[in-house]
Amino acid sequence: MFVCTDTEPDTDPAPEPDIVAWVAGHDGAGRRVTGHQLAATSAATTVRVRNGELLVSDGPFTETKEVIVGFDILECADLDEAIEVARAHPMARAGRLELRPFATFA
To answer: What span, in angstroms and rounded, lies between the C-alpha atoms of 83 and 4?
Structure first.
């Protein structure tokens, strides 16, 4: 689950869920395997290879207002459970959460 900022956060005045409680609850239930907040995009380094040439630049490659600020690896029975886990994350209101399964290679 990628934790991202969003240019249009929720405007509901209700209190946001507590991130410490969210982490503790899902760690305790075995649904959250690991996760961490990422450093600011100003600390990012982008690496590309084009026509055999190494290109290294500071910061994110694209100019964007929405950035990945963290991640959580979840262990859920199915997508429905993952959606419920993400729904309760504070960034579901302040930003957005992108759920992706790990790819399987044959």
So the answer is: 15
Could you tell me which of 80, 72, 76 has the C-alpha nearest to residue 97? 72
Q: Which tens digits make up the pLDDT trace of 24-67?
A: 999 999 999 999 999 988 888 888 899 999 998 887 656 677 88
- Give the DSSP letter of residue 63: -
Burial state string for 87-103 with b = 16 or more CB within 10 A and e = fewer than 16: eebbbbbebbbeeeeee
> Cα–Cα distance between 15 and 26 in angstroms, integer?
20
Query: What's the one-letter identity of residue 97?
Result: L
Which helix (DSSP H) or strand (DSSP E) does residue 5 occupy? strand 2-5
Label residue 22 by pLDDT band (50, 70, 90).
very high
Go through the domains of the chain in sequence order and give each one's CATH number: 2-98 (3.30.70.1060)
User: In the 8-state DSSP scheme, what is residue 90?
Assistant: T
User: Which one-letter DSSP state was computed for residue 52?
Assistant: T
Residue 91's closest CA among 27, 1, 29?
Answer: 1
